[in-house]
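Hi everyone, sorry if this is the wrong subforum. Our group has a chain we'd like a structural model of before ordering constructs, and none of us has done structure prediction before. Sequence below.
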Amino acid sequence: MSTSRLVLGSGLLALVGVALLCGGCGATKEPDAGDILFDKGEYEQAIRAWETSLRENPRNTELLIRIATAQVRLKRFDAAEATMLRAVAIAPESPKVRQNLALVYLRKKDLDKALATFEQVRDLQKTYPQVNYFIGLIHEMRGDEETAVRYYVEEVNNGPSPAWDRLQVYKAKQRAAGLVPSGPSSESVMVFCAVCLAVAGAAYSLRRYLEIRAARREKLGT
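Answer:
Right subforum, don't worry. Here is the predicted structure as tokens:
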């Protein structure tokens, strides 16, 4: 495996941890006891607190995602997988639940199961947040950049996404290899768009001013 792929893999695992946490925690308006313990890094105690709540509501997939998140932090990947499979059995049509299972597989570095599960998420909701991004990352880690780029483009077309950063890296590599002509940087494009918006806004304000003044004159003339 090349150095670039190792770096990408490390960055992926870091992001997966964040994504898994975001998928589980913060679902309620106020943090519960488990959330507070988790934020303190007391993952064992957080699991016990959530398991207590789970006994009262055994079909609560949000609690199961929280538990799996803490298990991942403790590097208990098999336990986290079992927890998320339990959640999938409860809510098989939930893209959120399946995406969190896929993220567990990524943390286990089981790319085959991760990719298959992300594809299941796409079957449920093609535009589910970051599903195309993670599929792209898996393809990139396997050295298939062209396929990865297709998924990245699809992801950024659905809204803001870290897939944009991967596209910029790919574009820079293509330019360095002389495969595409140099073009304006993303910063230049953003500045140009901002100027265009400012000009358009000024033109609209001027038009409205002239319309209002004309209406006043017409009113005074009646």
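For your construct planning: The domain at 3-181 is CATH 1.25.40.10 (Serine Threonine Protein Phosphatase 5, Tetratricopeptide repeat). The chain has two domains: 3-181, 184-222.
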